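Record type: monomer structure entry
Structure origin: computed from sequence
Chain ID: A
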Amino acid sequence: MLVKHELISKIKDFFDLNIYETKVWLALLGKGVASAGEVAEISRVPRSRTYDVLESLEKKGFAIVKLGKPVKYLGIKPKMILEKLKNNARKEAEERVLGLSNIKDTEEFAKLEEIYREGINPVKREDISAALKGKSNISNYLREIIQNAAKEVIICTNAEEMDQKSKLFQQTFDILKKANIKVKIALSGDKNLIKQISDKFKISIKPITIDAKFFIIDRKEILFYLSKSSDKEDVAIWLNSEFFAQSFAVLFEKAMDGGK
């Protein structure tokens, strides 16, 4: 069985295997049931290494030993391997999140907070404006500033963006509603999707034709996107300027009222 080097390389990366493990697993999948000698011949992996590789694949769950003699091996179905790896990744991520959540209760983290608060030149939020890059970084920062709102949040974005981040916005809107924070939303895009979002979040939304993305918090700070949704990387600017945010909010309200 001849397998292209390009396929071997991609499978190796997809499933975090080494070259020999990948070749042996592919050989097993192609043969169905095979002895170590047959695997060595098909995969062209040195016979002296084949036994170790088969043992490694068995431990990782990519192969199993068939009962009987001579000893033969079966390759595990790719779909089963994929589901197993997904479950493992999910479990590891949950454990990592739990571990990170517990850090805030440690003495070391308390010391970090103390250093931040009482440093020689502690950073003051009002002294900062920043450029943000990447969907994750922007979303995390956006969540923080919105959830710290005291009076009002103005949102202007597109329906597709809000729909994709529905989990983020659902949690955020629940927090804002409990705190009696006023929320004003304008969305561009498909009108049917806008109505679905409005019904889902139980919040009034103004359809607009302007393709812009910005968020104004308490008319004191604003986060606005410099990139389009089609761009490879999201780029946004956060400004803590009451004058700029207030001016932007006034323009937003005039646009919402049809320029009156």
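Annotation 1: The chain is about 55% helix and 15% strand.
Annotation 2: The two ends are 74 Å apart (CA to CA).
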